[in-house]
Specification:
There is one protein chain. The protein is built from no helices and seven strands. By secondary structure, the chain is an all-beta fold. The two termini are about 35 Å apart. The radius of gyration is 21 Å and the shape is elongated. The protein has two domains: about 50 residues, no CATH class; about 60 residues, N-terminal domain of TfIIb (Single Sheet).
Length: about 110
């Protein structure tokens, strides 16, 4: 999906170019559709591109935190995910899984 550089509206395909869908846009924005190939679409995504947000998801392959310590085995490295568990004006919660023993915990910032 592409957006107009001038007004931010979605663009649509019109032949070989992408055009702005906003009729009030002062500048007629058009881009070659060849630029579209540089974008990742859901059709061409691989499993490696998908970020799993399910609570039961595997943590392996997620970002690693080195500023934590596992209470079970003492390893100072854990995979983590971040979720907004409270209202939007509260900081997000980090969920950890120890890279050593697999122990899971959460941290409220």
């Amino acid at each position: 999906m592409q957006f107009c550089d001038d007004c931010g509206s979605m663009m649509k395909a019109d032949g070989e170019v992408m055009v702005c869908t906003n009729e009030a846009c002062e500048v007629a924005t058009a881009r070659d559709r060849e630029q579209e190939a540089a974008f990742v679409t859901t059709e061409s995504q691989t499993f490696d591109d998908v970020i799993e947000s399910d609570e039961d998801a595997n943590f392996e392959g997620k970002p690693k935190a080195t500023d934590v310590r596992c209470d079970e085995c003492g390893v100072e490295e854990a995979w983590y995910t971040i979720k907004q568990t409270a209202s939007a004006d509260e900081p997000p919660t980090r969920f950890f899984k120890c890279t050593g023993c697999g122990y899971r915990w959460r941290e409220y910032n």
